[in-house]
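Following up on my earlier thread - several people asked me to post the actual chain instead of describing it. Fair enough. Here it is, all 229 residues.
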Amino acid sequence: MLEVLFDEESINKKFNITLAERPELTVAKERYLVYEVPGRNGNLTVFDGYDNVPLTLHFNFIDDDVRATFREMNNWLIGKKKVRLSDTEMYRNITQSVLTVNAANNDIKEWCDFELEIITDPFEYEDAGIEEVTSEAIIDNPSKVDAETSIKVYGEGTCRVLLNDNQMIFKDVKEYVVVDGMIKKAHKLMSSKDNDMQGRYPVLKSGENKISIDGQTTKIEVSKRWCWR
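Reply from S.P.:
Thanks for posting it. Predicted structure:
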């Protein structure tokens, strides 16, 4: 049976509910800005990223106390961050915890039918493991979408990481520091290290990425977190 996992816990098993149908396959839509430029033939069209993706899940279930189960499920969904189907390891991030449970059909006392509407980030994410780099390497991003990645930098003192044309410098490193391009933050144990960092947050572009270390860096661990439309 196909299950839906929120933060890696199955809503189906927890509340004994069933997907009434497989959800549609969704694709992030490209967004463009259109400008009228004096003296230029036609409009100037500039790519401006991807839109968030709506995901609709249709459930039903039978229960001796439908109302209580429905209320408990609504409460359980509050604050969930990720969602995925059990037949894939790819997941979506829920945008600002936007979860809407529509009014349920309860024509029969012991039966309930409802839709759950979710707004997610534009992409499905694939965690393809960690690549350790002790000198230099080439990391290939198989997707056509650039991936905001996370790098754990090990060393003492001033550490340098060169990712393509982006040189990141980390000052006063003690043991390690983590820099995450998705959340736009450098940190260690939840303590911000942004003031000790120079350079841009790391992004693995589509295709080959050259990466190397310098300074007092001993090694880095690069998360290969691919984005798929």
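The mean pLDDT is 92. That should answer part of your original question.
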